[in-house]
Design goal:
six-stranded parallel beta sheet, about 15% strand, alpha/beta, about 45% helix, Rossmann fold, globular
Length: about 170
Amino acid sequence: MKYTIISGTNRNGSNTLKVAMQYQQMLGAKGVKAELVSLEGLDLNEKSSQLQKLEEEVLTPTDKFIIVMPEYNGSYPGSLKTIIDMSDIRKVWWGKKALLTGVSTGRAGNLRGMDHLTGALNYLKVTVHHNKLPISSVDKLLSHGGMITDAATLTAMEHQVEEFIAF
């Protein structure tokens, strides 16, 4: 079973990437190896050789995706949408599973964006796990080392990861 975590923004130094890295560590502690994909630095203007390589070597062989995404204007980032739109949807997405986590500096944790992405992924025949985690005020939850240390949030993340492994 191949797991891939996608940090769903191309913004440099994002909190999203920090949270995605924490998911990778959580999975590793449970004996599950997960590839981490950051959209930072990807050329998204065309299906470049870099994007083609990502699709062939990482996305297509993936069975389960964990997508961590920030809230952009009440939805999910265009860079994440572009990755989906440029990929061979039958090879990359059909019949796969996904877990969604939204992050925001506001109070809703990107609930609306997770709903929007769920609809798009369901259209692509991806089964989205029911336990979608909104992480609100992420900027206040991250320590100076870039890790979430809030006990309640960590418990929710751990529970979500355990459910997804069994999913």
